[in-house]
Amino acid sequence: MAQIQGLAAHAAGAELLSYHYDPGELKPHEVEITISHCGVCHSDLHLIANDWGVSQFPFIPGHEIIGTVTAAGSQVRSREKGQRVGLGWQSNSCGICEWCVTGRENLCAQSEATCVHRHGGYASRVRANSRFVIPIPEALESENAAPLLCGGITVYTPLRIHGVNPSSRVGIVGIGGLGHIAIQFARAFGAEVTAFSTSTGKEEEVRALGAHRFVNSLDSKAMKEMAGSQDFILNTANADQDWSVYLQALRPAGTLCMVGVPPSPMTVPAFPLISGMKVISGSPIGSPFRLREMLDVAARHKVQAKTELFPMAKANEAIEKMKKNKVRYRAVLAN
Ligand code: NAP
Ligand code: ZN
Questions:
Q1: Residues 24 and 144 occupy one common structural domain
Q2: Are residues 136 and 230 in the same domain?
Q3: Which tens digit of pLDDT belongs to each residue from 127-177?
Q4: Residue 327 sits in which domain range?
Q5: In a shared domain, residues 105 and 46
Q6: Ligand 1, atom 38: nearest CA belongs to which residue?
Q7: What is the pLDDT of residues 264-273, one digit of tens each?
Q8: N or C: which end of the chain has fewer CB within 10 A?
Q9: Where a domain ends, among 282, 306, 321?
Q10: d(CA 329, CA 131)
Q11: Mean pLDDT score of the chain, rounded to an integer?
Q12: Are residues 10 and 158 in the same domain?
């Protein structure tokens, strides 16, 4: 097999450099995708910085991939050459545990990530178990759909599992790559949507995406006024915040769900949890059947990422812009 060309981090926090590797034999259940687009998720930045202590260098980041199937292993029946497909954070699981056989592969203890201990999508090609390689509905443009493969499914799944519906009041914290898609899905589910953002310059666009209300989360008076107003708050921000203020913003029996990964442990008072019967939860990506469902919902309800397109070779520029919180709202690399 020909070498795969990509951009790799060679040390924690380092700039990406041109890199190639030999992918070896294609395994029987694997599909090889020739990549057209790859979104830049903040998890790539966490991995490059080795924030989570799991990165092995050199590695090629990238896990919001869209491309075309150009090779399929001997056991692959469900994908064919030439098909447009997507691949997200997860690229394999055991397939036989309690979680895999009940459609919750994202909870499998043997789960393998597309760019952890292997090379991801800032590259010419990538491989994954065909179960995690998802057909892309025709109505979706690759550039705007690539971010759905991680950012989209990560916000769709908890909104769906927690039963968000027209009676729900939903708060989305952090309006970046994940958050701006979350607003659109929460709106598609019929909820009343409040955006909590540190960037007041985003207000007009955030309302156009479907938010009914925009709250400056740095304004402590405005935050206090939100007390008891939300049924479900989804945190997509990757920063430490005063979580007790968000617990206060919940109505009784409300849930604060974490998908963004703040650096420090969360410290919260127990009393509001007890008296208001409130819940703090978390959610990892989503399973393959949810990915299909989410893409179908996105196609029918016109949910898409607002993107800034960069040539693959300019991945470092996209990363620097994201570090400054200047991307509106998802950087996508194109080959
Ligand atoms: P992103 O595009 O950089 O957006 C993050 C947003 O967080 C920013 O746009 C900003 O929104 C807000 N923010 C930044 N600094 C902040 C601060 N100091 N205080 C409060 N808010 C701040 O990142 P992303 O790609 O959406 O990813 C967000 C997080 O989700 C990352 O931690 C990533 O690793 C995680 N993630 C988790 C999963 C999962 O399975 N659970 C999957 C994908 C990603 P405003 O400007 O509106 O304040
Ligand atoms: Zn991601």
A1: yes
A2: no
A3: 999 999 999 999 999 999 999 999 999 999 999 999 999 999 999 999 999
A4: 4-150+285-334
A5: yes
A6: 259
A7: 999 999 999 9
A8: N
A9: 282
A10: 29
A11: 98
A12: no
